[in-house]
Amino acid sequence: MMKQIEKMQQVKQRANCLVSAVVVQQQIQRMAQEITAVLADKNPLILTVMKGGFIFTGHLLTLLDFPLEVDYLHATRYANQLSGQHLIWKAEPDIALDNRYVLVVDDILDEGTTLAEILHALESQGAAKIYTAVLVNKQHQRKARPNWTPDFMGVEVEDRYLFGFGMDYKGYWRNANGVYAVADEDAV
After folding, report:
1. What tens digit of pLDDT does each residue of 21-60 get?
2. Residue 98: inside a domain, yes or no?
3. Among 52, 67, 109, 170, which residue has the least CB neighbours within 10 Å?
């Protein structure tokens, strides 16, 4: 156990902070204003994608000063690994989506394969409209949907392996306050 803790400490020490905690908070405030302008009168359902989206969602919800409902879903392809293939559903939303405005909140839009599969599954449940909000959008051309950008986005970052503010490194560092890029030697 101590060896793992030491290794994770080294990962954080070698990492580059790409987005400071202050900038993250500023971007979440901006996003909250944009979301309010679109959804304040729609009785929206906010769905957080677990595990990565829960920290971002918690910060975001405190800034949305209008009636809304909250639920979650848990689908993953990674299972604490650096990559994954098949979507695994661990929990689906409990609240019916029929004729609802839905905001799906996640930590990152990388390639978007997981989020695209989640959206496809939610669309089949009869939502009036589904929006996406992500804290981080990675800049690259490998999106599951060509030229895909979320409806509400915090920051765009370079194409590196990230952790912090909900994003993890092998199950660790979701709690890092800011967005960090793993050093090259740790990205394996």
Report:
1. 999 999 999 999 999 999 999 999 999 999 999 999 999 9
2. yes
3. 67
Flag whether 1 is in a domain: no
Question: Which candidate, 95, 61, 90, places its Cα nearest to that of 77?
Answer: 90
Nearest to 131 by CA among 76, 78, 60: 60
- Give the length of the chain: 188
Roughly what angle, to the nearest 10 degrees, separates helices 21-39 and 53-61? Answer: 60
Which residues lie closer than 8 Å to 119 by C-beta, 6 or more apart? 104, 130, 132
> In this structure, is residue 132 part of a structural domain?
yes
The total number of structural domains in the chain stands at 1
Residue 54 phi/psi, 5-degree rounding, is -70, -35
- List the CATH number of the domain containing 182: 3.40.50.2020
Question: Does any domain span residue 62?
Answer: yes
3-state secondary structure (DSSP) of residue 101: strand
Reading phi first (left if > 0) and then psi (alpha if -120 to 50, else beta), residue 12 is in alpha
Tokens at 10, concatenated:
């080294």
Note down the domain range covering 154. 17-186
C-alpha–C-alpha distance, residues 172 and 43, integer Å:
35
